[in-house]
Amino acid sequence: MLSTIYFMLPFLVLYTILVVYAERKISAFMQDRLGPMEVGYYGLLQTVADLLKLIQKEDIVPATASKSLFKIAPLLIFVPIFLGFSFLPLSPAWGSSPFSSALFFLVAIISLDVIGIIVAGWASNNKYSMLGTLRSAAQIISYEVPLGLSALCVCILTQTLDLQEISFQQGILVKDQTNFLFGIKSLDVDVTLTGGFLTWNVFRMPILLFAWCIFFIASLAESNRAPFDLPEAESELVAGFQTEYSGFRWAVIMLAEYAMMLLVSFAGVILFWGSWNTPLPNIGSLKLADWTTGSTGSISLHLWGIFWLVSKTLFTVALQIWVRWTYPRMRIDQLTSLSWKLLTPVALVLLIICSLWKLVL
Amino acid sequence: MMQEVILYLFIGFSIMSVLVILLNRNVFYSALALLTCLISLSGIYGLLQAEFLAVTQLLIYAGGVLVLMIFGIMLTNRIAGKSFESKSHNWIPGILVTTSLLVVLVITFQNSSIKATQNELNTGNHIRNVGIELMSTYAAPFEVSGVLLLVCLIGAALTASSFKKSSHE
After folding, report:
1. pLDDT tens, A96-131?
2. Is A101 within 8 Å of B35 when comparing Cβ atoms?
3. What is the pLDDT of residues B144-168, one digit of tens each?
4. Where are the alpha helices (DSSP H) in chain A?
5. pLDDT-based confidence at A251, cuts 50/70/90?
6. In degrees to the nearest 10, what's the CA dihedral of A63, A68, A71, A72?
7. Regarding the domain delimited by B2-137, which CATH topology (the fold level of the hierarchy) does it fall under?
8. Where are the domains positioned within chain B?
9. Cβ-proximal residues to B162 (8 Å cutoff; 6+ apart), any chain
10. What residues of chain A lie within 8 A of the CB of B55, using their CB?
């Protein structure tokens, strides 16, 4: 609860400002341009300037819109996403809300986000907005299935829905549990005290790497990012459900989009890539994992935990930006057939393989 | 104390949103009010330590069913370009049904003895207990509802694809 206000809220604002800049710079470099260069050193203050401009703009509400709904819709989009952050553990000693079904709740919260989008599109009273909304709803509903199934693959391994417990299982701080190399008991290589990347979920059960691929693709669709940005396809729908929005309300919608990217990246790192655990293993007398985890009860435990969690998450966000500027947008029929005909069956097969891995090996 | 305030806040929200459903003529507003009501109920479940029920309420009712409902309303309403308003019908049967339901609920509430204490509810991993109960004590209803869902799924797939084709031929 407190972690959300003390850490997540300031972090989210800072992250959004930096990541919008990063997105513009990365896209520029990928297209052999320079990107923003004028405001501040190397264009660093460009996003701050843009934000100031957005706050000053007139708050326009279309004459035929449902006024109260139109005004409240950006908040309806942002609040569920922000609520999702309250379930994320930050470090071994700084957990989240004590909630034994946090992962389940996270999936439920992500699905509520679509209601804000529907309200925004409907209240705008605009054909483009409506089309964008219809696409968005179809997309988020269909991609929830592979997303949930791939998260379920992790649950089979961890046998808990508590995100803090899932994090503990993936490092050297775990108690009452032996981690074997790749989760295969017959190899008889005990890596519990070695730690590092060897005890991350993707290494405890290597088949989870494929589950993560599905999770990543579905999370791109859930956060309306390219190649799944059909709800706001600029070239055909102007800006989809956000066409009529301007000024600060539009800024809140953008904040929600970037917050969603961050939330799904956090979730992916916690579920698959070791959460707040260090990637460096203990090698003989070289206790790299012990050194980069911090000692219990001291501030170093917090600092290392947050450092590893945030850096891994930001790496995933960078991956999302890279994907956005690499692939073209999909058509709506390709989008739904990818979800229902490819990702969902593959996720179901992975679920069975994961169960067998857990039971047999 | 704080918990009680929040509890009454949720109760107030749910009652108010139900009143909006009853008194409002616009179907889209009614759907949104129903959503508020369902989320408030989920909040009440959460405050009463029924974690699993709260999240399920949120995921299935608030998240899934309602999105589909709003979806339907939107398609019929704005794109078709005609207003879609609800009118009140069947006053007398409605009042009869609701009064008898109220009587049943009040009598059940007075005769029942709800004794689960705070300690009983907090023991152990809530969701683990739910899972074990579902697979042991309530295995039969669980499986039957699974079969029901499978039938729905097959029916939906059939109406969507081959059914149409065969009627053309």
Report:
1. 666 777 888 888 888 788 888 888 888 887 778 887
2. no
3. 999 999 999 888 888 877 655 555 5
4. 2-3, 9-30, 46-56, 67-85, 102-124, 127-158, 163-169, 201-204, 208-222, 234-237, 247-271, 288-291, 299-324, 332-337, 344-360
5. confident
6. -160
7. Four Helix Bundle (Hemerythrin (Met), subunit A) (1.20.120)
8. 2-137
9. none
10. 101, 104-105, 108
Measured between CA atoms, the residue of chain B closest to residue A117 is B67
- Nearest Cβ partner of A104 from B32, B55, B125? B55
Inspect the interface and report whether the beta carbons of B74 and A118 lie closer than 8 Å: yes
Domain region containing A251: 2-360
Please count the structural domains in chain A.
Answer: 1
Distance CA A12, CA B4 (A): 31
* CA–CA separation, A81 and A253 (whole Å): 11
Extract the tokens encoding A278: 């260090």
Cα A211 to its chain centre, rounded Å, is 15
The CA distances from residue A266 to A123, A253, A310, B152, in Å, are 32, 20, 8, 35
In terms of phi and psi (left: phi > 0; alpha: psi -120 to 50; beta: otherwise), the region of A275 is: left
* Bond before A74 cis per omega within 30 degrees: no
Residue B47 touches partner A, C-beta closer than 8 Å: no
- Give pLDDT, residue B3: 82
A168-223: pLDDT as tens digits: 888 777 777 777 777 677 766 777 777 777 778 888 888 888 999 999 998 888 88
Which residue has 């460096």 as its token pair? A280
Distances in Å between the Cα of A199 and the Cα atoms of A135, A220, A278, A292, B139 are 40, 26, 10, 15, 35
Q: Who among B32, B71, B127 is closest to A101 (CB)? A: B127
Res A254: pLDDT: 86
Whether residue A136 has pLDDT greater than 90? no
Annotate A196-207 with DSSP letters as a single string: GGGGSHHHHSTT
Instruction: Determine the pLDDT at residue A68.
Output: 82
Among A115, A155, A337, which would you mutate to test the B interface (most chain B Cβ atoms within 10 Å of its Cβ)?
Answer: A115
Residue of B nearest to A144 (CA): B64
> Is residue A17's pLDDT more than 90?
no
**pLDDT over 70 for what percent of chain A?**
95
Contact B74 A105 (CB under 8 A): no
Round to whole Å and give the CA distance between A352 and A345.
Answer: 11
Nearest CA in chain A to B123: A100
pLDDT at A124: 81
Q: What's the confidence (pLDDT) of residue B55?
A: 85
